[in-house]
C-alpha cells in the first residue's frame, strides 16, 4: 500500500534505513542514519522532490518510493525479494504516464545493486549507459548505470493481442468487469477457480482485473473474445511457481474455445518470454479441464488437494507441468 510519509514514520524510517546494506545503495543517505536525519528528510518533502510515498505491507513500514525527475525507491532489508517494488512501481509508473504531458522517466542504480537493476528491468526500463554517483554512506564515488523508460515503451508493454481463427485474446480493461463477472461467478465456473466466488462481487472482480493487467512480463490475464468482440472467457499466467488459469463461459462450452485460446496463449508466451516450466492443476471433478490439459501438451505429475473460495472444503486436484518442448510436440 502507498500512503504519504508523515512525521510519525520517523522511528520506522530510522530503523529501516539505518542498515548499511540498505544505505550503501543510495546516493544522498548518510550512515549511520539518525532520528534528526529522518526528521529533516520528512520535513523537506515538497514539490521539488516530486511525488513521494511510504510503502506499507499490512501495518509494517517497508520503504519509500518517489517519482519526479527520476524514479527512486528503497526497501528495508526485511522486505527484499517479495516483489514489492515491482507492484508499487507499476502503480506509480502507470500514474505518471497517465498524465499525457508527463516526460519520459529516468532512474539509475549502482552497478553492484543487481536487485535494483532487475526491478527496473521488470518495470520496463532499459540501460542507456554508465555514470558515477557519489555515495554518502560509502564515502566514495561509485559506478552506476543510467536507466530510461519512454512513453512508447510503457504503452507497448501494456498491449498484448493474439488472434486465432475464431478468437481474439486481448488485455483486460477496467470496464470489462461487467462481462467477466457472470463468467467467473457462474456456479459451474467459480468452484473450478481458486479466487472466484459465486456470485462474484463487483469489488472483487475489479480488483482481480487490476491485478491481471498486462505489464510486459508474466503475471497477467487476457480476455478471450469472439471475433465480434463478445467476451467468452479469460486465460492467464503468473505466480510462483509460474502457473496458469483459464475460464470459459459455460454457455460457450463444447465448441473447442478453451483449447484454441489456451494453445494460442502458450504459443505466444513461449515465444515472448523465457518461461522454463509452467505448472497447472484442475479439480478432479472437472473432466473438461483434464481434456484441455491433455490437448495442449501438459504432462501429468501427480495429485493433491486444492482450495477454491467457492468451495466449502479442500478437494482433490490433478497437477501438471508444461514446457516449450511438450507444447511443441502437440502442435
From TrEMBL:
Keyword Acyltransferase: yes
PROSITE patterns the record matches: GNAT
InterPro entries membership: Acyl_CoA_acyltransferase, GNAT_dom, N-acetyltransferase
Pfam families per the UniProt record, alphabetical: Acetyltransf_3
Keywords: Acyltransferase, Transferase
Domain (N-acetyltransferase) ranges: 167-327
MF-aspect GO terms: acyltransferase activity, transferring groups other than amino-acyl groups
Similarity comment: Belongs to the acetyltransferase family. RimJ subfamily.
Name of this protein: N-acetyltransferase domain-containing protein
